[in-house]
Amino acid sequence: MKSGHVKIDWVYRFMPLLKSIEEEYGPQKPLKELRIGMSIHLEAKTARLALLLRDLGAEVIVTGSNPLSTQDDVAEALRERGLTVYAKRTEDERVYMDNIKKVLTTQPHLILDDGADLTVTAHTEYQEALKNLRGVTEETTTGLRRFRALHKKGLLKVPVIAVNDAFTKHLFDNRYGTGQSTWDSIMRNTNLNVAGKIAVVCGYGWCGKGIAMRARGLGARVIVTEVDPVKALEAVMDGFEVMKISQAAKLGDFFITATGNTKVISEKEFLEMKDGAILANAGHFDVEVDVRALERICVEKYEARPNVTAYRLANGKVLYLLAQGRLVNLAAADGHPVEIMDLSFAVQALSLIHLAKTNLEPGVYPVPSHIDEKIARMKLASMKIEIDELSEEQRSYLENY
Amino acid sequence: MKSGHVKIDWVYRFMPLLKSIEEEYGPQKPLKELRIGMSIHLEAKTARLALLLRDLGAEVIVTGSNPLSTQDDVAEALRERGLTVYAKRTEDERVYMDNIKKVLTTQPHLILDDGADLTVTAHTEYQEALKNLRGVTEETTTGLRRFRALHKKGLLKVPVIAVNDAFTKHLFDNRYGTGQSTWDSIMRNTNLNVAGKIAVVCGYGWCGKGIAMRARGLGARVIVTEVDPVKALEAVMDGFEVMKISQAAKLGDFFITATGNTKVISEKEFLEMKDGAILANAGHFDVEVDVRALERICVEKYEARPNVTAYRLANGKVLYLLAQGRLVNLAAADGHPVEIMDLSFAVQALSLIHLAKTNLEPGVYPVPSHIDEKIARMKLASMKIEIDELSEEQRSYLENY
Amino acid sequence: MKSGHVKIDWVYRFMPLLKSIEEEYGPQKPLKELRIGMSIHLEAKTARLALLLRDLGAEVIVTGSNPLSTQDDVAEALRERGLTVYAKRTEDERVYMDNIKKVLTTQPHLILDDGADLTVTAHTEYQEALKNLRGVTEETTTGLRRFRALHKKGLLKVPVIAVNDAFTKHLFDNRYGTGQSTWDSIMRNTNLNVAGKIAVVCGYGWCGKGIAMRARGLGARVIVTEVDPVKALEAVMDGFEVMKISQAAKLGDFFITATGNTKVISEKEFLEMKDGAILANAGHFDVEVDVRALERICVEKYEARPNVTAYRLANGKVLYLLAQGRLVNLAAADGHPVEIMDLSFAVQALSLIHLAKTNLEPGVYPVPSHIDEKIARMKLASMKIEIDELSEEQRSYLENY
Amino acid sequence: MKSGHVKIDWVYRFMPLLKSIEEEYGPQKPLKELRIGMSIHLEAKTARLALLLRDLGAEVIVTGSNPLSTQDDVAEALRERGLTVYAKRTEDERVYMDNIKKVLTTQPHLILDDGADLTVTAHTEYQEALKNLRGVTEETTTGLRRFRALHKKGLLKVPVIAVNDAFTKHLFDNRYGTGQSTWDSIMRNTNLNVAGKIAVVCGYGWCGKGIAMRARGLGARVIVTEVDPVKALEAVMDGFEVMKISQAAKLGDFFITATGNTKVISEKEFLEMKDGAILANAGHFDVEVDVRALERICVEKYEARPNVTAYRLANGKVLYLLAQGRLVNLAAADGHPVEIMDLSFAVQALSLIHLAKTNLEPGVYPVPSHIDEKIARMKLASMKIEIDELSEEQRSYLENY
């Protein structure tokens, strides 16, 4: 069997929620006669989701959500299973945008977006794509920020379901998923020791919390940087050191960004860093570590290991950038663990089914809470975990006391 | 110096935020000509808050919020410093309610409530107390639940500020405060080992999270029980075992409730427990461990240590209940750590100042976000921790990209 | 029932190993016709051990091993149960030594020592006490160091069993016991928050490891100081910061010593500390925090809370010393958790039985490994934990492959 | 540059101790005129050690210590740098033994062994190799067990230095090295989530402790199995569940063996396991998971992912075995982190220098403690960490008090 199919078959076994949805909804084909444009990090787990949507009745057209995160063998396997796929790992940014547009040309009824590139392009350069569009589901914090900015300016033309904001998504994916997969990627790409090292985590949102928690779990001493004083205080109480990035720059062995912002680590910091410091980004876009500044100030640049670029600075020190500053867990490893994506993608699938049968005004909507609860119960059941139910007396106490 | 004053002087030194507020607002006397009724667990830290409110210009009348949590020496010290105090540790429930009413008789302009007993009584048995009342601040999850239930029925007559919901309150007080002080109380009252024992934590809200986190930090194996599937799943992902209380009953060495609900552990569970099991409640009311059922089914009852009541059951086993099932950290120890209460009480003080200068309709209101941010910044400053500020470019990126 | 008896009854229930030994050996009276001098921190758990030794046939004479760690109600209860007790909490050093001598006057056949004061005095000031003496068991690292120094000089006249070195003693008592009880004492005596604070742990032996582990478990940021480079490196790899005490002095909120050495924190460090720093000693003798230097350099000294002495320095800062620099978990709390002492005291009891039936040359001897294994098996059985047994094939593999 | 050289250059930068040794001892050539036979897991870090020994004057002949752990590109790079290398990844067991014998044919003066295959073969099938042999250094627990068994039978003909027993080796390599690299390998080869899963760790020696600690650090619920009651009790006190493998078999999602024994998980357990269970071995030999039993009882076998073999049993369940049951961190990942091996290999290098200048009787010797201390100091210095020194007064206190 070819590698793309082997990969997809592996994840099938560890995504019980998608299987349950297939079994429960498959016979009704709730997405039939709908064309879905998907912009995703194309690897085995997202491929599994694409196949589920197809099996729920949809016509599915797939593109990447990040040039480097596409796995070509998986793309090929999806094509062999009958989906339309416009994605390739080696593409440059222009090719990436061309593929985005190819998806839009099909005038999809629904968009499953990851970072908002597909939908934002439909609102700007390629507005005919809005014609059929009935709704969008968005996977990431970053994408939602973009949609909300768009809506604030009165420019959003479709309803967007904030998949990322579902409890069963962001509480798990951003924290446990990003936490594990970021360190998986750093370890496999560097073979360096984590215990006893200093890990600087920029941002203490759910992703940063997960990265910091796992850094400690691997034995690192953790420093957190933040701009939000409440989150900064939370990091302090969690036992981490908190300081400015300008102070942390001198101390860190590993630097990981997860802020959703730009130029979090830049020239000034690079010049202060220790020889051999490792730089990685776990945020959606490749702007958190200021790669352009690195390119500008380095005196030499070379490939130190696969996925590791060495930048020698004029001060003689060498900094190592993982995955060119792109999402380190996706561009240089296999992304979130399978079971975590099973949770997130169950939210996606049920949200798309929800969009297919409702008619919403433009705006950004939360995932209905019954979806969250349903998914959590499905997941617990798949783990054979039973929980308590409120008794009548308890329910009444909560309401009336 | 008498013990009440010694206790108050000690906490003074470790409550830098109240001191900062005193320095910043004291000269303006923003609470002058206002009478504040306080219902609180009366010990050194709440005494410090009462003194601050007095120094901000208010006339302060103090009562307890739980019969067993009043420390008489502190009450005495407050009286000696000129406050009116109606509270005593040895009081029975009737005396407790009498004191509540004594406070209401003064017709306060503002109420600082902890569990809502004071304000609820003003809405029911003693409605003349509503005459001057301009607003309430409520400290606990439990109290807010009661206020929201009241408001839903259209019965709430005053604006209530949800102090508990402030980030700088519930993220810190409920989690780190309850977490530490619950175990402090269990350890000091039992002298039992925690490492290697099985701790059953009922409820995985912020309090339960804190108690579970510290149980693990002390070396226990932790079992969580929940009724909410999302929280249950979160506990699983945090590495805890999750099961029904009926299963956990057979396994636990320590049982701690923090649900806000009633009869979380009851007769059926008591009969399944191991000989020597320890029962403690960390929720607001003494109904979580079903003490009446214990009293009913026991064949013998005796004081095993101070604050530890032994119940011998007909099956020969002995269960030990701490603090008669009341809030274990308050009724059998010193409550939350000083610095944690400094945070919460800074929210209280600034919320009361806010109420004093605004005019709100009846309802439950969040703490204004500028108060949260101000307090977090004050706290970081008191720890000499500096954090990053967004650059113009970053701010613009977040808004426009 | 009087408080001493209540305390002893409580620990009875949580010391299953001593109970098992009583049941297994009691009928044979293996210690009959032997007089045992015990020097111990006299509280409920050691009282339970004394009663076991009596029930194994011995005549038991008890004194303290530290002036401040004697609980008078327990001493009284022991007397009421027929033992001879020379110990009192309020005694001064001279009274303490007098009591030591009173025990020696009885010319015991066996000594159970804790810190070596009793036996060392028998070798120096009161040598007639050596006449009947057939052997000694020593509880602490500190005591063993003294015995080994004595033996190196050729002065040791009796065999000493190194109870502390038994796996079931030092792996558990020093680590889990000291770890929990030190923080229990600090929390109950200060009511201060641990999460987010900086805890400086001096010494990374088994005690220091336990204290550091629990400090982290309570949310502190931990700094370790060491003189041994291998232990220092281990602390680094465990994720702790390691530095000199001179650097740590400026940073710490809590300082805890557990080195077995003298003047670990002294004048130079005191002068660098932050206002409000808390000082505690978890080592055997009260010389680790240099209390004399504190007394000399302070401009004011007062009782800030029970067990907390405030020292105001000329630089205006106030340092708080717990328990006068004595063992903080014993002098200002209830010592190790009950179940931990059950393990250690099982080693004591079986070692004394071993001494009673063997005839050894002077020297320091390890606890026979069969005792260690027996105790570990007894403890697992008491927790209803079953473990694997080697198969014949596995045993042969280990020996022959 | 070819991949083998790139890999070696990468590790050079993160092995400061080997560099320090090169700088300190290189000029003296302490190993000149000595031929060293090395049996090692041949990858970049061991290659770096081989190059150091060459630079210290030795003639170095290299073979593997495990058929699957050889990286061919690194072997090639070593050949290109002038060393003699007899090792290949795809070799079968016979080829492996042939290579062992090729090294012995050169009649080395010193052997650096990893698992004892090279030296044991020299004592059995190829005794002429003993002629020049002056000493051996052994890296692993398993190898030392074999040497001690040999010595007990009077068959050991050379002195062996127990590198594994050095503090700077086993406290770090077995615990932090195996801990991290085992999970790195499991995560990269499966892409499965660890948080919320049940990890069964067989063996609670230093390796097992490390694996269990990291499993918890990654969010797993951990079950430990042991045959030694003291270690079992330690695992309990560390907060882990302890039970028999027969009970754990039904519960685990991941099973990792690290016992040094054979058939730790075998047919009886396989039949009880959950569908989808993952099996991995972190012990030296591939006998801990009983692969032969798996082969015998499976009804289908296929490659599920690279390094993951699926075994479908007659009960319909599929078990996944990583790396064919060989050392999972070496055979299916990059082995221990670079810096950890730097510590271990510093012990190797200084032990070989020690052997070169001393003349020892056959036997198993500890690493001299001055080597341990020197290495720890070198490592701390490389991290710019300063530690305290004993004062004269303190040294005297420790000796005389």
UniProtKB/TrEMBL annotation, chains A, B, C, D:
According to the UniProt entry, its GO molecular function terms are: adenosylhomocysteinase activity
Q: Tell me which PROSITE patterns the record gives.
A: ADOHCYASE_1 (PS00738), ADOHCYASE_2 (PS00739)
> How is the cofactor bound, in the record's words?
Binds 1 NAD(+) per subunit.
Q: What is its EC number?
A: 3.13.2.1
Q: Which residues form a coiled coil?
A: 373-400
Cofactor(s) needed: NAD(+)
Alphabetic keyword roster: Coiled coil, Hydrolase, NAD, One-carbon metabolism
Gene Ontology cellular-component terms for this entry are: cytosol
- Give one GO biological process term: S-adenosylmethionine cycle
InterPro entries, per the entry: Adenosylhomocyst_ase-like_sf, Adenosylhomocysteinase-like, Ado_hCys_hydrolase_NAD-bd, NAD(P)-bd_dom_sf, S-Ado-L-homoCys_hydrolase_CS
Q: In which pathway does it act?
A: Amino-acid biosynthesis; L-homocysteine biosynthesis; L-homocysteine from S-adenosyl-L-homocysteine: step 1/1
List the Pfam families.
AdoHcyase, AdoHcyase_NAD
Name the residues that bind NAD(+).
Answer: 140-142, 205-210, 226, 282-284, 329, 336
Which reaction does this chain catalyze?
S-adenosyl-L-homocysteine + H2O = L-homocysteine + adenosine
Q: Residues in domain S-adenosyl-L-homocysteine hydrolase NAD binding?
A: 174-335
Family of the protein in this entry: Belongs to the adenosylhomocysteinase family.
List, alphabetically, the PANTHER family matched: ADENOSYLHOMOCYSTEINASE
Q: What is this protein called?
A: Adenosylhomocysteinase
